[in-house]
Amino acid sequence: MAVYTEVADEELSAFIDTYDIGKLLSYKGIAEGVENSNFLIHTETGHYILTLYEKRVDPNDLPFFLNLMQHLAERKLSCPLPVAARSGALLGTLAGRPAAIVTFLDGMWVRRPRPEHCEELGRGMAALHLAGADFNMVRRNALDVDGWRPLFNQSGERSNSVVPGLAEEITRELDFLEQNWPKDLPTGVIHADLFPDNVFFLSNKLSGLIDFYFACTDAFAYDVAICLNAWCFEPDGSLNVTKARAMMNGYRQVRPLSQAEIDALPVLARGSALRFLLTRLYDWLSVPEGALVTPKDPVEYLKKLRFHQKVETASSYGLSL
Ligand SMILES: Nc1ncnc2c1ncn2[C@@H]1O[C@H](COP(=O)(O)OP(=O)(O)O)[C@@H](O)[C@H]1O
Ligand SMILES: N[C@@H](CCOP(=O)(O)O)C(=O)O
Description:
- The protein is of the alpha+beta class.
- It has nine helices and nine strands.
- It has two domains: 9-103, Phosphorylase Kinase, domain 1 (2-Layer Sandwich), CATH 3.30.200.20; 115-317, Alpha-Beta Complex (Aminoglycoside 3'-phosphotransferase, Chain: A, domain 2).
- It has a five-stranded antiparallel beta sheet with strand order 1-2-3-5-4, covered by helices on one side.
- The protein binds adenosine-5'-diphosphate and the ligand N[C@@H](CCOP(=O)(O)O)C(=O)O.
- Adenosine-5'-diphosphate binds at residues 2, 30, 32-36, 38, 49, 80, 102, 104-105, 197-198, 210-211, 213.
- It is an enzyme of class 2 (transferase).
- Keywords: Amino-acid biosynthesis, ATP-binding, Kinase, Nucleotide-binding, Threonine biosynthesis, Transferase.
- Residues 27-257 form the Aminoglycoside phosphotransferase domain.
């Protein structure tokens, strides 16, 4: 459960009173997510999500995230809409943290995605890439290839306590990726964390995307690689080519992938696997005392990384070249 910051009832009621959403009736901490503290709040006008932004969110990036959600919602992409306080501000402060209220999105995330979910996801991701095309803000990906070595250094030799020899294995992979990371791929707004728990479905149709707090300006195909890792592997660690093909097909129905993007996928998938291995490793080794959070398994992403290291072309992902 991700609640790092507790909020006192009176403090929360006073905060809600600065919005035009009626009086607070009830609230509860949300038992999902690992990044921020989230609360489901119920007021006289309905349900909302209150987020208190935690460690990995740079407050300077919050206008990018909140304006992006507004921009995408205006373009009919189903995502939470930030609610403005009476002052007009989208961002406030609660319990010493930057805080925002967004609209509640109906739907459920799918624990065991099937190929039809992967296809829907592919279409939704491509729609996001297109809808972001005229968004006028830019945010560098803080967790791109240049950010991975400094992130790894925060775990360093302690990584070996998770898997013996892991520090050396990661160092070799960093050397490879820093040398071979593709440049000049088409870029724009990407979600960068489009895992199943951030994609809602109603009756097997995609009903909305949430959690834009890693969104940034980066290669579209890197988002595809992130989703390949997050959606198309089985619990036993094997790639499900049918799911991968379904996801790519869905994506290409909405936005074509260039040959350069297809050729880059194996390296992008390695990079994406390393990126989530590194954040999970850090979180695994650094759970804050008293935080209600279940850290995610870094080894899952080590296995994915090792899989992609053996891949030579994107045909292994079910793509025709
Ligand atoms: N706008 C929303 N509508 C409905 N539920 C939401 C919304 N935002 C978050 N949630 C719920 O809160 C959980 C955690 O949110 P998320 O943004 O993924 O947290 P984190 O920032 O920690 O990754 C989600 O899995 C979902 O259950
Ligand atoms: N998706 C990341 C963790 C952050 O995402 P959240 O939406 O679960 O908070 C991972 O799986 O490592």
